[in-house]
Amino acid sequence: MNHAAGNGHMQSILVGSGWHSQLFAAEMSALVGQFTSIPNGDRFLSSDVSIKASDLSFSATLDDLLQPAAHIAISGEPKVVKEDDLKAAFAEWLTATSLTPEMGTIAVRPSRHGERVSGWSPSDLAGHLGAVLSAAGWSIDLEKPQVEVGLVVNCLSGIIVWGVSHFSEPPRVGWKQRSPTQRPFFKPVSLDPRHARLMLNLVRSKGVVLDPMCGTGGIGVEASLMGISSFSLDMDMEMVSGAKENFSWAVENGATGEAGLQVGDATELSEIIDPQVRSTLSGVCVDPPYGRNSWRSEEASRLFIRVCASTRKVVSEGSFLVCMLPCEAGDDEMVHGQPWPQMSSALEEVGWKVNGKWLIPVHASMGRVMVLARTG
Is the pTM of this model over 0.70? Predict the structure, then answer.
């Protein structure tokens, strides 16, 4: 038997990009707080609390914020969308909102998650919603509407979500123009902007973010473009000089966050960072070298732990640390050449308690693990 189950109340629905559903949930938790997962919809998260779109404007994993929003789930096999049921659910939602035709023109923007399924055409379903809007007195304008309703369909799981769209395009638009190869100073292992932004959001710093092994400065660049202040260090004078070029390039491209920079040993931060700067540090993002000669090295692993111990001495209580560590492809239990329980214990011993770990594929022989930890 087929039926459509409504959500029963007004919602805010976060729509993920599909890149990494677990990291999407982690990032949204850091940016907006509590939410619930919509069953069988790993790219949909629901909240009963109103969300500020500005809080999501630098998200690395978000496609859109639909608010106010609602959803229905079609059960049974095969899953069949009944036009009258969909229209009734949408009409009920429309009546419960504060939306009125006096707000201007409107359009429904359809999209699909997953594979195509017969009878689940997003454009056809959008037409059903458009009919409800027309009957309610709205003027439809598909070119330049004053109100946009996003409609997202997950055909295989039978989920249909809709709501007022708050992003005309995903926040990640423009990343290609900011890729490491576009910056003045580039090295092959430079951090991708998506990863840097995700790390910065997970750190959720209210002060200055510390990058103790900055390399070409990818974290500082993205922090500055997000309006976040950062303080970066590297032992290699060439890297610091190149990172400075990249920070200047970021300012030329609209960056507003202050970006401090210093040559120095990441294992001696409490001795080399000015006390006034130390008092402002409230989060750590670190992307240690992971080239072929280092990522399986026990010595590199020990150095990383020493760096983490050093960072713990200079950040405030309650701070978060996010790092990207190399691992075997498809195996996040061997991290930086060490068994994960051993790495996790080592982090905790130096004052960082692990809150989360996520595998990110790189290529056939290597992966990376993003680790989130907090002062223990």
Answer: yes
